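Before we proceed, please read the two lines closing this message. Report back on whether the structure tokens fit the sequence:
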Amino acid sequence: MAAAPEVVATAAEVRKRVGGARGAGKSIGLAPTMGAFHEGHLALIRRARAECGYVVVTIFVNPTPFPPGEDFERYPRDLEGDVEKAGQEGVDLIFAPPAGEVYPTGDCTFVEVTGPLVECLCGPHRPGHFRGVTTVCARLFNIAGADRAYFGEKDYQQLLVIEQMVRDLRLPLEIVPEPTVREQDGLAMSSRNRYLAPEEREAATVLYRALSEAGETVKSGERAPAALLAGVREAIEAEPLVRLQYVELRDAETLAGVRRVEGRSVLAVAAFVGKARLIDNVVLEPEA
């Protein structure tokens, strides 16, 4: 039986344990999460375990990225189950702080990436979201002092924003992307999938089907963004239980608009299925 990871609630305790591991010559891997683990989270943890000598997992439902009216209060929480799963994967330390440990009273400093990376996709629809993400990540990176931090490509825009922050702040940290983990029917794994009723769960599979069909269209030679976007939009809007929020085609590195699919592009969607807001994406790499 795998040993249960140690669970701590303060930054001082994290720094003490990480300092001891680093003193023993171990590299530090960090998997920041909001908990309610699924296979996507576990893929991050396994990658960190394979590449690092000491693995830290944070479990913190960060309040700051949730705009008013979103699901902060009902976001899935399962610390006991998460600790058990983390132990099975060989995690060394879990940092599960109260909000006051991450955001002490009187703090007035935020970290914010501005510009094109946050002006498209989820940015306009979730005001303040990415400032909340970068602020909490900067704090967790500082507390954990990791060599590598692991993030999933399902949250593609978030990944690019965090990479930009790390570059801009000259943080001595490598951001390691991990491919999206999917259910057998293609639905991207997400803690919010728990919100879905059975008929909603089935309807949600249209997101990846529509993206995949667009990818096949590109392989067949289509290069016009308008045609690709129209195809995805038509497929999703044909599903009555799904309400499309956006579908956009962007440069995969800069998120700039794409006039023609020539290099790597990301095709991304966000949609509401019942009470769940789901996102997904595929990276398009047309053959020369």
User: Anything to note?
Assistant: Residues 6-178 form a domain with the Rossmann fold fold (CATH 3.40.50.620). The first strand starts at residue 6 and ends at 8.
